[in-house]
Amino acid sequence: MEEFKHLDRDIQGSAKRWKKFVESECPEKEKLPQEWKSKTSLQRLCMMRTLRPDRMTYAVRDFVEEKLGSEYVMGRSLDFAASFEESSAATPMFFILSPGVDPLKDVEKHGKKMDYTFDNNNLHNVSLGQGQEVIAEQALDLAARKGHWVILQMGLREGDAETLKQPRKVVGAD
Hints:
The chain has 174 residues and is mainly alpha-helical. It has helices spanning 7-13, 15-22, 41-51, 56-68, 80-86, 104-113, 133-146, 160-165, and strands at 123-127, 149-153.
């Protein structure tokens, strides 16, 4: 692409400036070195994807805010009580999380109103990974038998959906 012609040469020729940019804690907030600072927002996003892919979530957020407005990136609080009313014992709730979003507090708050707490041993929280799958299976089975709540914190991987689909006899599902 013509817009990025000679970028490789510029990075080699101004290694200190580019190193400072690339090693920045929040490079998406920094100005690009030299003539690259005049690039469009989309071109800047492309460069960020190449130079610091780990910061793309934040860079895309800034891009959307710049182009569409802050209302498109502001987190909305979840009305967990309303969502809970739409669920049932046989219908689990799933939350897709993004940076800065943590529905756990809402779940705990609503659970406390209904006497589901960690202290009562009827609210279970399992962070999956590193062998926690067995503990999660046990918590799901216990919850199905006794009507407990289970929070599974996980990054979905291949095979997880099949495990979650396994039928369980659920208390109160009839």
